[in-house]
Amino acid sequence: MARRLGEAFAGVGVTVVGGMARGCDTAAHTGALNGGGRTVAVLGCGIRVLYPHENVDLARRIFNSGAVISEHVGVREWIDFVEIAPNTRVATFDTSIPSWFRLGTAARAAAKALRGRGARTTVGPSFYVTGMEGPLADGELGRATAWGRELAAKARTQTVEE
User: Fold this and answer.
1) What is the pTM of this model?
2) Scanning 13, 74, 78, 142, which has its CA 20 to 30 A from the CA of 109?
3) For residue 101, what pLDDT is reported?
4) Which of the following CATH numbers is that of domain 1-83: 3.40.50.2000, 3.40.50.450, 3.40.50.1370, 3.40.50.12780?
């Protein structure tokens, strides 16, 4: 019944919203997707610890055509679930507080994960912020703008050459 309702709602342009739990939620989400509609899954857990686990494929379908909402979603979760076409160009960067000690960066970790998914990556610099929630430190906006322009110029050149 829930699957048929999801399909019917999809047919008239209504977005189905549910919790992606076993049973009715799963059926309604599936019906909406099968009916060519949109559905939103509101999770009580993070994507990396998706429950119930048997809904991982359903979560991917919803993520790529609707929305999966959780308070626990971050870049790592996005990388795990987004569909990335082979050779997609991706530039990563991060922000940090100036310090003498730094092991690695989130940008490098994200680039590595994206390469594992088939993307072509460029790891950019760390842009300095003044505190845990920003704002950018003096001069960093100019540095970020220059890096963005450099990437755009490279992309135009590479597209012409390919």
Assistant:
1) 0.52
2) 142
3) 63
4) 3.40.50.450
